[in-house]
Amino acid sequence: MAILVDDSTRLLVQGITGREGSFHTQQMLEYGTNVVAGVTPGAGGREVHGVPVFNTVAEAVAATQPNASFVAVPAPFAPDAILEAAEAGIPLVVCITEGIPVLETLRVYHGVRERGVRLIGPNCPGLISPGKAKVGIMPGFIHTPGPVGIVSRSGTLTYEVVWALTRAGIGQSTAVGIGGDPVIGTSFIEVLELFQNDPETRAIVLIGEIGGADEEAAAEFIRQHVTKPVVGFIAGRTAPPGRRMGHAGAIISGGRGTAAEKIAALEAVGVPVAERPAQVAELVRRVLEDI
Amino acid sequence: MIGSVVESKGGAMDLHEYQAAELLARYGIPINRGILARTPEEARAAAEQLGSRVVVKAQVHAGGRGKAGGIRLADDPIQAEAVAQQILGINIRGRTVRKVLVAPAVAFEREYYLGVVLDRDARRIAVMGSSAGGVDIEEVAREHPEAIVREYADPCLGLQDFQARRLAFRLGIEPELVRGFATLARQLYQAYVDCDASLAEINPLVLTRDRTWLALDTKVVLDDNGLFRHPDLAELRDPEEEDPLEREARLAGISFVRLNGTVGCIVNGAGLSMATMDAIQLYGGEPANFLDIGGGASAQRVAAALRLVVADPNVRAILVNIFGGITRGDVVAQGLLEALRQVEVRVPMVIRLVGTRQEEGRQLLEEAGLTVVDTMEEAAQRAVLAAQNQ
Q1: Would you call B376 and A276 a contact, using CB atoms and an 8 Å cutoff?
Q2: Left, alpha or beta for B388 (phi > 0: left; psi -120 to 50: alpha)?
Q3: pLDDT tens track for A248-276
């Protein structure tokens, strides 16, 4: 099973002729992802790592029927690329681009929702269903198939947790990086719901960080709707208020969005929160044994 | 998450009050215009030019100016000079005041708050108003949330006139004043959207004795990520207001926040950087900084990061935590060694490196006499210990 991406994923890469687009296309192909097409306006007719390139998403869709798109387009052009994919009817769009103005993301957020399209990101590492498909920039080798679903606002911190799980012999169903911006296409709650309904996922890891109230909303959702065990990790216990910690969304403002609040909200609904990334693996082992 | 499609690192850029005032005036917002002064003499000349009682206000990127003595009244030009002398050079929350704004002192009947901000949870732009103007709005939000009224702009259609009017009526503004208030709210909203702001506020917005609206103080914060399409606004950045190290980091494309501890951190990824800081504290140390070098971990970037960290005299040990992932461990190691040839490091350094071919990477580093460990926990413990023993 897994969620969102698997063996049936037919991937389009937008920005495929760029340095990042080309590199990650190769990486995804090596992992076994079925990359069916690429788009770069003006580069139609070319091939990148054997993948045909089209000028528009509509042409790529007509010729190759992709059901997911990976957007590796620089920030000034990424919103347009996301909307082009949505307009062409691609149901899942994954955007890794960092640095999109938040008001642009807001516009795009509502635009893709209206079209019934799921956007993951922006400013995210993408997602992977180990052994099935990788639609992202994460290192494939650290993952192994298994029963744990992961949802995270971070990139390398997710790799850290995944690596700890894999080394502890605990595999993953799907790992989803939802992104570190203040506005993102898909929130914790929506991914939690998908994991709750995925028969292959037996436990869930939620990796949050300071800023906003998405972790608190996730805690409330877990209380009401999630019966599978959840383990948490929150980064930024030592972050000072009023300063952005790298991610545009990682800021404690007006005394809200602290790690302490988020940890308390999760613990209040029975979610154990690890003090360090490696401890996540220990806590997951424990909850899996209890099932 | 990826380096080459990144121009900035998602920060925010504060404008000074005088800059915000100028910007908002272009949208038709009635501003109590002042004159900028860098010396007491200039403040005196400004007061002479204004020919009235004046208020002298520190122009500095810090809140709580009033409480810190950064805003004072002056009856005449001589007093304005004296007051400016007192304000210039003082320190407000770690920032030195280098400029003051001299503006006419205004008598008013009532004061309001009007602000535009992104509501992350609602995923809408919110226009907020309060009749408790002139005070810290975050404090009002905490203690009297009912005193703040909100309207959410439609993501496609923007803020409508009826919404702006509704805001005014809910604030109890008299019918004959509503139209003026609503116009102002829409002007502020438009400025916010056009400039890619993350905050635009008027506090206080006052009703003067002659029943007109006037913005006495304004604040605008811009989204760094939007600056590429506003080169004119990007030029408003005040280098005097930036920590020199943070400025250097920004120009090198590195996310860097200076803290007060003794363990310098060099990490790739924002979440991992925070988790590394947390681990340092967990093992009894204090991080000296947040530092995300971004993707790739090239020699050039690592060298720039090392320069930033060693420039902090409080740093007693350095922790390098690189989850290379796709980037090969031996390439990262070579980058680190190259960076160490460029930058002299006199404090102990603990390196944790993971990635494809990490064993080769570790071997290269160990051959060069560096301490390389396997896990982030071990790295944090060792770095804390090293800092304590220095």
Answers
A1: yes
A2: alpha
A3: 788 888 778 999 999 999 999 999 999 99
